[in-house]
Amino acid sequence: MNEKRKIMEQNPTVYVGHINGFSRVCAGRKVGLTAQLLMLKIFGLFARAGWREWISIDNHELMREIGCASETTIISARNRLSEMGFIDYQRGFKHVPARYRLAGKPELPEYLKN
Fold first, then answer.
1. Which of 51, 52, 62, 66 is nearest to 15 (CA)?
2. Domain residue limits at 16
3. How many Cα atoms sit within 13 Å of 45 on the Cβ side?
């Protein structure tokens, strides 16, 4: 693993970079509040997981994460994020949760570029 990648994976600026990039994109597009909150929670889940390529989480856990009572609302928000290119999603099946991957790259501070 090269040194820059190691710094990115261990540095909290990756988290902030993802949030900043997402916020900039949302500024000019209709994303919806539930989808925005879900994306922020997904960033947090990736941060807690050490920025692995994929994380697994079921709909009911996502519902608890954002305080949503409707699975349909979560699915709609997730589909919107996927359609807009923020996440890649692989559907789960019985007793196996769905998998998520961040589709974009974080906006890194200048000292991590090049």
1. 51
2. 3-105
3. 22
The residue behind tokens 């990736």 is: 46
User: What's 19's domain CATH number?
Assistant: 1.10.10.10
The pTM assigned to this predicted structure is 0.79
Q: What is the pLDDT of residues 11-68, one digit of tens each?
A: 667 778 788 888 887 877 788 899 999 999 998 898 888 888 899 999 999 999 999 9
Q: Exposed e or buried b for every residue in 62-80, given b needs 16+ CB within 10 A?
A: bbebeebeeeebbeebbeb
Give the pLDDT of residue 106.
58
CA distance 77 to 16: 22
Residue 2 has pLDDT above 60, yes or no: no
- Domain membership of residue 114 (yes or no) is no
